Amino acid sequence: MSLHHAYDPDNIFAKILRGEIPSANVWEDEHVLAFMDVFPQSEGHVLVISKTSTAPSLLEIEPEALDRLTAAVQRTARAVEKALSPDGFQIMQLNGEAGGQTVFHLHFHIIPRWTDRPMKGHGHAPMADAAVLRALADRIAAALD
Ligand code: AMP
User: Fold this and answer.
1) Which of 5, 107, 109, 122 is flagged as catalytic?
2) How far apart, in whole angstroms, are the C-alpha atoms of residue 80 and residue 97?
3) φ, ψ (nearest 5 deg) of residue 34
C-alpha cells in the first residue's frame, strides 16, 4: 500500500469515534480523543487522535489540527507521568505500511517506560483486559491538569 492513499472511513479509529466499537477513553474534547491502546506495549500505553481531521498520516493533517493534537499529546503525557510515575516515556508516530503503521487514521502513541520492565514490540503485545484498561484510563484521567 502506498504512503499516499485515501482515508478509509471504516478504519478502526473512525469506528471508535463514531461509537461503533468500544474504547477505554481517557479524555476528549471537540477536537481530540485520548484512549487506551488495546494491545499495550507497556502499562499505560495511550493513543491520541484528532476528531476533526481525516488525515491518514502526518503528511496530510491540517496545521491547526496538528497543533491541537500535539498539545493533547503533551497534556496526556503529563497525566500519564503523574498517574503512573514511569522512568521515561516514548512518543511514537508511524506513517505508511512500510513505516509500521497499521491503522490509517493519524495517531500518536504515548508509551510509558520503566528501567526494570521490558517493552513489548509493536504488533506483538497481547490484548489487554477491558477492566484493567478502564482502571488505567481512570487513573490517568484523574491526573489531568
Ligand atoms: P499503528 O500501528 O501505529 O498504526 O498503531 C495502531 C495501534 O492501534 C496499535 O498499537 C494497536 O494496538 C492499536 N489498536 C488496534 N485496534 C485497537 C482498538 N480497537 N482499540 C485500541 N487500540 C487499538
Assistant:
1) 107
2) 28
3) -115, 130
Structural domains in the chain, CATH included, are: 12-142 (3.30.428.10)
CA of 116 to the centre of ligand 1 (A): 25
Record the cell numbers describing residue 103, joined without a space.
491503522
Contact of 39 with 54, CB cutoff 8 Å: no
Closest to 40 measured CA to CA, from 30, 55, 59, 26: 26
Residue nearest to atom 11 of ligand 1 (CA): 39
pTM of the predicted model over 0.70: yes
107 labelled catalytic: yes
Q: What would the pLDDT profile of 60-109 be if each residue is shown by its tens digit?
A: 999 999 999 999 999 999 999 999 999 999 999 999 999 999 999 999 99
User: Distance, CA 104 to ligand 1 centroid (Å)?
Assistant: 10
Quote the CA–CA distance of 13 and 23 in Å, as a whole number.
Answer: 9
- Judge contact between 93 and 54, C-beta under 8 A: no
